[in-house]
Amino acid sequence: MVDTVNGTGASRGGRHAVVIGGSLAGLLAAHVLADHADRVTIVERDRLPQGPEPRGGVPQSRHTHVLIPGGQRAYDELLPGFCDELMAHGAPRVAAPTDLAHWQAGRWFRRTEETAYFISPTRPLLEWLVRRRVLANPRIEVVQGTETVGLVGDASRVRGVLLRERGAAAVAVGREPQPLAADLVVDASGRSSKAADWLTALGAEPPVEETLETGLAYATRVYRTGEDGDAQAHFIVPNPGQTYGAVVLPVESERWMVTMWGLRGAEPPLDDRGFTEFSDRLPHPITRQFLDAAKADAPALAYRTTANIRRRYDRPGRRPAGFLATGDAQCVFNPIYGQGMTVAAFSALALRDALGENRRTPTTGRVQKAMYAASRQAWDISAGSDKNMPTASGSAARSTLADRVSGWYLGRVEARAPGDPAVGRVFRDVLYLSAPVSALFAPRIAKAVLFGPVRPTPQEPPMRPESV
Known about the structure:
By secondary structure, this protein is α+β, with helices and mostly antiparallel strands. The chain contains 14 helices and 21 strands. The chain starts with a helix and ends in a 17-residue tail after the last helix.
């Protein structure tokens, strides 16, 4: 960190960075900052568990998570060998399309040989392994059970945070917030970030906020299958004409997670019978067949907060130096697309690269633009898909002419991907954030998309991969 980012221009010995939030985005940001500061303090509202256990500050932690190929590369780059460690702790490796029956746009994908794979851990396992790695660094400390209630500084520069101990006892005695000085503050407090209010209180401009809400809501339940069970991982993707979806994936400890979703008002019930019978609304009985054969291992849990929100810190404005936003505090996606954990790592890599670039001065604005760019493809996929839902609303819901043109082309991609292995492979690479969207416009793929036929696909989810 140089003068324009941390405001000191001092030697390494005096630099202090504060990260608000100890979830994945905060942990990975702290990991990067530890190479540029003498001390990094993570301020976390929760008391962190000692093992792979859910916690209140991650309300979706009991729901399905996947680490897609783009994310695997990012985590291994930040924490070498991380994905092998994750799988060594039991997180399943799911080959695509070999191990996954995939229904989208009214059709089943052909089950060809593996072209990619994702890892399907529980969120507590993945977060615990990251936390264990990151907090092993002696330069990084955590202040637990403490919430950030404001920023210290003025409209030109943030110089620290205001902290208050959480809990009824602290409130009862009326303890005043205490300042913690910092050269750089990174907001990784998540979807519910209060940074806009904090910046306004300093006389600075809050970021413009883009929102896209579909009203999609989901519920998740954990199951176990018998030793002789023929459980099938599968993914049923909703669309404007069919707004119900499901994903069924294995997780560690020989369990399976089942997540189903529908629009608000038609969301999955949480009682035993209602949750099971909701699967009858899906376009194929594969999920109902799984539920009838499996044994529930935990109650069903709901999650209703699925809006896409992007806070445009990258745009010009009267905002102070020494403040950055990352992870869900900067850009949050509809969770059904499985992008959040990956973008947290992308943002940390962008932070690392921006701070380590010797040729250009890493101003706060320049670093924030790099972190915005790291989330852009995921936003385009998530928000671009959600714009087409019949209940889409919000400031980002309006479709432009460019949206309609690209939507027409991507509709043709979606129609051909299930039956054409070449198109399907690139389609998955883009969705898995391991290839840019431009890969869909490569000459060979564009030719197949624009002029190729819609090839036949299976009428039923194929149980075994085919060769091509």
